[in-house]
Amino acid sequence: MPYPTIIGAIAGDIIGSRFEWDRIKTTDFQLLHPACDFTDDSVMTLAVAEGILEDKPFGPLMHAYGRAWPGRGYGGNFYHWLASDNPQPYGSFGNGSAMRVSAVGFACTTLAETLEMAAHTAWPTHSHPEGIKGAQATAGAMFLARTGSSKKEIAEYVTTTFGYDLSRSIDEIRPGYYFDETCQLTVPPAIQAFLESADYEESIRLAVSLGGDSDTLACITGGISAAYYRQIPQEILDFAYGILPEELGAISRAFDRRFGG
Fold first, then answer.
1. Would you say 103 and 112 are in contact if contact means Cβ atoms under 8 Å apart?
2. Are the C-beta atoms of 18 and 243 separated by less than 8 Å?
3. Contact predicate 32/239, CB 8 Å
4. Structural Rg of the chain based on CA atoms
């Protein structure tokens, strides 16, 4: 029986979606709510997953998926990229490169391969060094979580390799935290939410409670947590798959079968 892979990131996106514009500063909230929905985070995560499953280039797939699933909260620059018939990298360092990379952390067999593939997933749009770094740090943390590293080892790797500050707790970050769409201010607190959690659900609650870009924070955290804990409560899985359109859910399940063992 495969363990859950990219559905960890997707479920985080779905749970966090209703707080993106109605932000909260508490972990005490209804986790599974009728107002939840999948966003661009899930769509692009699945585009990358199909690229890995089918050995297809990431850029064209992301472009096709975005056009097939419009109106899912795409950023302004990404929206223009989707509208172009000849899309080119536009040097973004937004957190979109980190939210879509979870499939890389599950698919690769070495850390070096993980970092290289993460850069490839970022490059079609997020070609700025900070955009690439955000994708690599997320995928690298996920690879280490999946392959048996401790939380301490993951934190040390992220801080020494990428220079992200993981010295402050979520309780210390939360009061002054605000909505931010950059990798620099999204990836470190998302990783911190994972580091402080005891299980998948708690990690998502911590990420959302920051009161920031909640769907993306929870998407990043959820991918790492799924890799580390290797289990997600069944009611969360059922909820997420119940919201995803059947054709998108099928990709996630196919990815589990290939890489969740």
1. no
2. no
3. yes
4. 16
129-146 helix and 111-122 helix, angle to the nearest 10 degrees: 140
Residue-wise pLDDT tens digits, 145-191: 999 999 999 999 999 999 999 999 999 999 999 999 999 999 999 99
Tell me what pLDDT residue 2 has.
84
Cβ neighbours of 39 (radius 10 Å): 23
pLDDT tens digits along 203-239: 999 999 999 999 999 999 999 999 999 999 999 999 9
User: Amino acid identity, residue 106?
Assistant: F
| CB contact set of 122 (below 8 Å; sequence gap of 6+) | 97, 101, 131, 132, 134, 135, 136
Q: Provide the 8-state DSSP code for 2.
A: P
Residue type, 101: V
Question: Which of 142, 182, 146 is CA-nearest to residue 158?
Answer: 142
Using an 8 Å Cβ cutoff, are 99 and 9 in contact? yes
Nearest alpha-carbon partner for 255 in 38, 90, 133, 107: 107
Phi, psi (degrees; rounded to nearest 5) at 84: -75, 145
Collapsing DSSP to helix, strand or coil, 39 comes out as coil
